[in-house]
Write a structure and sequence with these properties.
The chain has one domain: 3-Layer(aba) Sandwich (Rossmann fold). The chain is an alpha/beta fold. An eight-stranded mixed sheet has the order 6-7-8-3-9-10-12-11, sandwiched between helices. A four-stranded antiparallel sheet has the order 2-1-4-5. The protein is built from ten helices and twelve strands. It binds adenosine-5'-triphosphate, iron/sulfur cluster and magnesium ion. Residues 20, 34, 36, 54, 56-62, 220, 288 line the site of adenosine-5'-triphosphate (ATP).
Length: 339
């Protein structure tokens, strides 16, 4: 991973909310609201990778999309390099969109199926005015393919002629073409099988080292973010419930949800499960339209001290240690002190 720079973070998110009003069936019915993201705060230091994990539907992609202003947040603040992105004028927003790129789970969504890979990459360079002429574009395309460890002759292939792993490498090359400072990777390996997944994660690690990128790496599986993240944020029903350095999350998780997620996670490297870290997670994620009262995790929480208070009190994401934040009223001691 690249060295993390102290000082002013590249990204600062505070109290981010994205609520979707739902269409009701009948005019007299109350309009309901889906709370996809419900008060998310985090920083991204320069050169840092934050892993964002949680079960399907917990709001990871919506957080990423709001962060890049691909959807308008309902509330909250997002600062990029000290600037409030909600206040950016069109010109500044265009420059921001070049500095902050996203890679999706399905690279097809960002690739034109009728265009050869090399042409598609060259087009990105043209649109953003990155290369001076055709010769420089060709050279840059070659270098981009090299960076994502693809053979130069693949420039002449169409997306459907590539394997899933190769397509994802092209998706990453496309994002890197404009030399971004922030790279958001939204489940970039979820559709790939385990050996290809390992290769792509290895590539991400190389890119972090080489280019000092700042990354938000999204996955629903904790094992995926383990080797690429400096810190990990665990999301549940639109909120972050635990945020800590990656080694801490994997060795001494504090929140009952993180512990349960980890217990259910086969580790990528060994393929073994991390038994006895916590009880198994049961039941489904409740609807973000009518989240449970108090602690949103209480209907599924296996914590032995869960009680009526959990149904009443909404836990805030509080600092419980120097670099550790947890949203659980039953976690009282500093996790740093836990074994
Ligand atoms: N445009 C939209 N309109 C209404 N609801 C939406 C919209 N986009 C997302 N949602 C809802 O917001 C919630 C969070 O969705 P989101 O895609 O952010 O979750 P996720 O954590 O990325 O899930 P996954 O792991 O499946 O990708 C879900 O309940 C989803 O159905
Ligand atoms: S506040 Fe209560 S219900 Fe929520 S995670 Fe902690 S122990 Fe479980
Ligand atoms: Mg998603």
């Amino acid at each position: 991973m690249s060295p993390v720079q102290e000082g002013e973070p590249l990204v600062r998110v505070r109290g981010l909310q994205k609520h979707f009003p739902l269409r009701s069936g009948w005019p007299w019915q109350k309009r309901e609201t889906l709370r996809a993201v419900d008060g998310v705060s985090f920083d991204l230091k320069r050169g840092e990778t934050l892993g964002l994990v949680g079960e399907s539907g917990c709001g990871k992609s919506t957080t990423a999309r709001a962060l890049l202003r691909l959807v308008e947040p309902t509330a909250g603040e997002i600062h990029f390099d000290g600037r409030d992105i909600m206040e950016m004028a069109p010109g500044e927003l265009r420059r921001f969109r070049r500095r902050a790129q996203i890679v999706f789970q399905d690279p097809f969504s960002s690739l034109n199926p009728r265009m050869q890979v090399g042409t598609a990459l060259a087009e990105v360079l043209t649109v953003h005015g990155v290369a001076a002429d055709a010769a420089e574009r060709r050279q840059r395309v070659r270098r981009l393919l090299e960076r994502v460890e693809l053979a130069p002759h693949l420039a002449e292939r169409h997306p459907h002629e590539l394997s899933g792993g190769q397509r994802q490498r092209v998706g990453i090359a496309r994002a890197l073409a404009v030399e971004p400072e922030l790279l958001v990777l939204d489940e970039p390996v979820s559709a790939l099988d385990v050996p290809v997944r390992r290769q792509i994660l290895g590539l991400v690690r190389n890119l972090q080292r080489e280019f000092g990128l700042t990354c938000l790496f999204i996955a629903h599986d904790l094992s995926v973010v383990e080797k690429v993240s400096d810190r990990v944020a665990v999301m549940y029903l639109g909120r972050i419930v635990e945020l800590a350095p990656a080694p801490v999350i994997f060795s001494r998780p504090a929140h009952p949800y993180t512990r349960a997620l980890l217990a259910a996670t086969p580790r990528l490297e060994s393929g073994r499960r991390t038994e006895a870290r916590g009880p198994v997670l049961e039941g489904d994620v409740p609807s973000p339209v009518s989240p449970p009262s108090g602690c949103p995790f209480h209907p599924r929480c296996p914590h032995p001290e869960r009680d009526d208070e959990c149904r009443l009190v909404v836990p805030r994401l509080e600092a419980k240690g120097k670099t550790w934040r947890v949203a659980c009223i039953k976690v009282t001691t500093s996790p740093d002190a836990r074994s």
